[in-house]
Amino acid sequence: MNNKSLFLLLLLPLLFFSTAKAQKTVWEEFFSLEENKPTDHYNDTNYLAQWLQVDSLEGINMLRNADSVVKQIHQQAWKAKNYPVVIKAILFELKYQNNVKEVGIGNQLKQLDAEIEKMPSPHKNVLQSIAGSAWLMAYQNRNYDDEQQEPDTANPANWDIDKLVKKAEAYFIASLQNSEALLQIPIKNYTTLAFVPNNAENLWPTVYDLLQWRAFRFYSAQVGSHGVETGYNKEVVFSDVTDFLKLNFNQNTTQDKSLRLLQSLLQRYTGKSLTTALVTADIERVEYLSKISLNIDQKDSLELVWLESQIQKYKQHPITALLLYKAARKVACTNSFYYTSDIGDGCNNSKALRYCQWAVDSFPAENASYNCKGLMQEIYKPLLSASIEYSNIAKEPFRYNLNYISISRINRCSLSSFFF
User: Fold this and answer.
1) What is the pLDDT of residue 224?
2) Are strands 415-418 and 398-405 parallel, antiparallel or unpaired?
3) Which parts of the chain register pLDDT below 50?
4) Cis peptide bond prior to 122, omega within 30° of 0
5) Kind and range of the H or E run holding 96
6) CA 55 from centroid of its chain's CA atoms
């Protein structure tokens, strides 16, 4: 056997190992939701050693062993009535089923239903919300290689998208039942789940807030994918939160359902010491309404005016950093950010820098201030680029464009004709 053959023989197992390890499943989507936070075992102190063992076994591709440890955690947590950990274990078990046992998505959804039946309220509602997302993910899991064959209608992955959306909606609606009990569960009880960020208490004080936000994301995504049902005028889109709460969204449309959820969240945050939750939800409200209202002129300019009014309103509160970053993004033009705004004559990086410097100086610990530092670095970074005509004739002149952009964004040099 020559050296080349020996090398390939040794390489094949490594390739197989890498491929198996890299395989992703439907259920891993739940470990990268919201702020793309990694699975946080350190919020799960009672089972920390076991979760770290799971990570270690998964890291060396011993998935069956990892699955066995997860099942132990599941049993112990169920006995202790630690239902957030039970839900986390269920998600891990479903993930390993894909990788180890190759269980189809249809059977996994049935298993999830069985877990929902066993789970006591109100923790059942969290699983129902997860099930809503999972049914939509089933559509992404369809096998396009088998499109020419007769589809297995018993497999949800072969259902049409409208049927899956209706099924998913039923779960999201069910997840919002029993609201009084859900409002009594602080979100910190659920930070063991990967899709709950570390700053969740400021954004979603209770589990009910989280479930309402997840339902809103579901409905708003459907509005975006099925087109705009009804646009709104600028008075509605950029209204004060108190005026928005007075509006009626009584139609049984996807759009009105999403807006009713936003009203419910905003109503609960208004007049209380929940400024971060209130302003974050209000930003979401304005951006969402602006997106679905297509017939408003100068939307970016109006949104900037609204942001500036909120900055003045909350200028002593750390949430101002997020408002400043949003405003800076509206006027900035950087190498990695394509400027499409209708504000003024184009980029206004000096204004963006003022916004961001305010955020960094006044609220240095805020995530938005870190984002502002990144934006400032992008603005300060010069760019030198060159482009050549796509089609050229040998020994004939061709056009060559050389651009140099500095912080002022006005320095540019162009050569219209050049010989290679």
Assistant:
1) 61
2) antiparallel
3) 3-23, 32-39, 144-148, 227, 409-420
4) yes
5) helix 83-96
6) 24
